[in-house]
Design a protein that fits this description.
With 246 residues, the protein is mostly helical. It has 11 helices and no strands. The protein starts with a helix and ends with a helix.
Length: 246
């Protein structure tokens, strides 16, 4: 009997996660209540609280089950090995794109996390989780670049941190753009080509073709009429706040 009860609890939890995933994707996280999820799962609101403390915990459990692409931990058994860090990085990031393109649950979870959640109120802690995951992934990329430099596979002058940030921006940007408009390009074909081009470009020391910005150019940045108007409004707002404090 105990085994059956445990199985039933697991089935109820799975139904709640399924319902949350469906409703979050259809309506957005902020417009979906725990009562909505309970009703869609065919259980009581009390059953929701039996498994999850609040919407944040339910959201995180749903994301963990789906395995977010940028948090995906690739199986070490297919890794090219520690002496080929760039090849390993390439394979891991290609796996991210394949998961997004061909795994429906992973794709829905990615879309929810990037286009259907507002990081305010009770969901503010979700932003902290996402930031931590991105920093962890950036750290893995930086370590891979450092290993490549130590092995002589990258020029010593490559800034590993900047290279890691650029790589995150490239892959994250491709995924985000493709999620918004899947018909715009083939994620796998374009993603692999851009990824390989980026990693290959780091292996060759290329001089900067741009001259330093002049003082006039720097002074002109952000000074277009619309930018200046917004800046003036911000300045007035700051002055007003200071006045209220006094």
């Amino acid at each position: 009997m105990a085994r059956r009860t445990k199985q039933e609890a697991q089935e109820t939890r799975a139904r709640l996660l399924d319902a949350a995933e469906q409703l979050f994707h259809e309506r957005g996280v902020s417009r979906t209540s725990l009562q909505d999820i309970a009703q869609a799962a065919g259980v009581t609101r009390g059953a929701v609280y039996w498994h999850f403390e609040d919407k944040v915990q339910l959201f995180n459990a749903m994301m963990e089950r789906a395995t977010m692409p940028l948090e995906e931990d690739f199986e070490a058994s297919v890794s090219p090995g520690p002496d080929r860090p760039l090849d390993d990085l390439r394979l891991r990031l290609m796996n991210v794109m394949h998961c997004a393109a061909f795994n429906a649950r992973t794709r829905r979870a990615f879309e929810i996390a990037n286009t259907r959640v507002e990081f305010v109120g009770e969901m503010a802690t979700v932003r902290e989780r996402k930031v931590a995951a991105h920093r962890e992934w950036t750290g893995h990329n930086r370590e891979a670049f450092e290993r490549a430099k130590a092995l002589g596979q990258l020029p010593a002058e490559v800034d590993s941190q900047q290279a890691a940030i650029g790589l995150m921006a490239l892959v994250g940007g491709l995924l985000h753009h493709w999620m918004l408009d899947p018909e715009a390009f083939d994620l796998i074909e374009v993603g692999q080509a851009r990824l390989e081009h980026y990693l290959s470009s780091l292996t060759v020391a290329v001089p900067n073709r741009f001259a330093p910005l002049t003082a006039a150019e720097r002074g002109a940045l952000g000074r277009q009429p619309v930018c200046s108007a917004n800046r003036a409004e911000d300045d007035r707002g700051d002055d007003g706040d200071d006045g209220d404090d006094h």
